[in-house]
Design goal:
Blueprint (H helix, E strand, L loop, with lengths): L5 E4 L3 E3 L21 E5 L12 E6 L5 E6 L10 E6 L5 E7 L14 E7 L7 E2 L2 E2 L9 E2 L1 E8 L6 E7 L8 E6 L19 E4 L17 E6 L5 E2 L5 E2 L2 E9 L5 E9 L2 H6 L19 E3 L14 E2 L5 E7 L5 E7 L5 E3 L12 E2 L5 E6 L2 E6 L4 E4 L10 E7 L5 E10 L2 E10 L6
Parallel strand pairs: 1-29, 10-11
Antiparallel strand pairs: 2-32, 3-4, 4-5, 6-7, 7-8, 8-9, 12-13, 13-14, 14-15, 16-19, 17-18, 19-20, 20-21, 22-23, 23-24, 24-25, 26-27, 27-28, 28-29, 30-31, 31-32
Length: about 425
């Protein structure tokens, strides 16, 4: 365990947005490749994706705003859009999109949504990423549920996501990936179906009732890609694409605990097994030759919702776990050994998901209604904001700019007797690091 982190204060905060409407940032990849634009969705409440109509951009320096996508016939029942992130390789956004035929009887839901992309040079033109096929026989490369919280691989070639099936055991959340595909995954053109530009499969094996003491899981969730270019195994084998995810196991005492799992992504093996799409009465299966493996024993990750993060070199995975005082701290897991160690040892509890700086040496998070940056080299937590606990709430996940000079985050601001979620920037100055 580290000695207690030193805590420094800094305050160089400016508003990027200042309008009476919502601007919600996703938990990852909110900056364009060049760092000029930030993507947001129009939510003023994290729970309201189904009611949200717009995906927009705001210029970091000028505050200029652009709407790049807007739903048609939006109601409180859907279709809804949100949780947008930039590709690291091109001017393309990916986000959640509810089904176009959403209505009062079949509203936006965890099993009724899909991944959509928009290219900045073709605004308002949706590109459906994962095919949805509700008619049998099911089309290989398609799904029949809802994909969510899409995350780009380091080179922008693939996407990961969480998934809930609509037809079979919808409560079982799993993790999947979308792969590049020649042409489209084409399905029958009926209500509830859509073609997909990418080839989508499930890569986590979940069961309703895990055997106590086994490596079986009943939930796979909140994943990350390992490394910008994958990782090297202990025998020096290069794995180009791999995903780490959180998995709920049941220990020998019958208690549910969360551990870290990893799955290597082999495009050839995935596409060879066309039967993985499943049959009537089955959820989609994990393709043959794709196998998750448990990385940690005793990590017992925090039950506070957060997403795993990985270092760019693929050596480490980061997560939240509780210290002996019950405070959420960042821990680090060695990818090849499963070895765990605490990174932070703050005198307070982290109260948000977190992000890594591109250089892998800094972590940003929210605690006690303030934004912090933890510097690994100096073992210091730097407080970037000076909010009181009674001030408007800081919510969501702060993100580093591509060059690491500042952090952007969401905080409510009172306007016209209401609170609206705004985007703010906190600069990391030379005298604080």
């Amino acid at each position: 365990m580290n000695t207690k982190n030193q805590v420094k204060e800094n305050e160089t905060v400016v508003n990027i947005t200042d309008s009476p409407k919502g601007y919600t940032l996703h938990h990852n990849s909110v900056f364009s490749k060049g760092g000029q634009w930030i993507v947001f969705d129009g939510r003023n409440d994290d729970t309201k994706i189904g009611e949200t109509a717009i995906i927009g951009l705001v210029n970091v320096e000028t505050g200029e705003e652009r709407i790049v996508y807007q739903t048609n016939n939006q109601t409180i029942y859907g279709p809804g859009v949100g949780a947008a992130s930039f590709s690291p390789a091109r001017d393309r956004l990916a986000f959640i999109h509810g089904l176009p035929n959403a209505d009062q009887e079949k509203p936006y839901d965890i099993t009724r949504r899909t991944g959509v992309a928009v290219d900045l040079d073709k605004p308002m033109t949706p590109v459906f990423l994962d095919a949805r096929d509700m008619t049998t026989p099911y089309t290989p490369g398609s799904l029949r549920g809802g994909t969510h919280s899409h995350c780009w691989s380091g080179d922008g070639a693939m996407l990961s996501f969480t998934y809930n099936d609509e037809l079979v055991e919808p409560q079982l959340r799993g993790v999947g990936v979308m792969l590049p595909h020649d042409g489209k995954v084409e399905v029958d053109e009926v209500a509830g179906n859509n073609h997909g530009e990418m080839y989508a499969v499930i890569v986590s094996d979940v069961v309703a009732e895990p055997r106590p003491g086994s490596d079986e899981i009943n939930k796979a969730f909140d994943e990350c890609w390992i490394g910008r270019k994958g990782y090297r195994t202990s025998d020096n084998r290069e794995v180009r694409y791999a995903v780490a995810f959180q998995g709920n196991v049941v220990n020998e005492q019958g208690k549910t605990v969360t551990e870290i799992f990893i799955v290597d992504i082999d495009e050839e093996k995935i596409k060879e097994d066309v039967s993985a799409v499943g049959n009537v009465g089955e959820r989609p299966k994990v393709p043959k030759g794709i196998r998750q493996r448990r990385l940690t024993y005793g990590a017992n990750l925090s039950d506070f919702r957060h997403w795993l993060r990985a270092s760019e070199d693929g050596q480490y995975i980061y997560a939240l776990a509780k210290d002996e005082n019950g405070n959420n701290q960042v821990i680090r897991c060695a990818v090849n050994r499963g070895e765990l160690s605490f990174v932070t040892n703050n005198p307070f509890s982290i109260s948000s998901p977190f992000n890594l700086c591109r250089d892998g040496k800094k972590i940003t998070f929210v605690a006690e209604n303030n934004v912090f940056v933890y510097d690994m080299d100096r073992n210091e937590s730097i407080q970037l904001t000076r909010n009181d606990l009674k001030d408007q709430r800081v919510v969501g996940t702060p993100s580093f700019s591509p060059n690491g000079d500042f952090v952007v985050y969401n905080q409510y601001q009172r306007m016209r007797d209401k609170e609206y979620l705004q985007i703010k920037r906190a600069i990391i100055t030379d005298n604080t690091l």
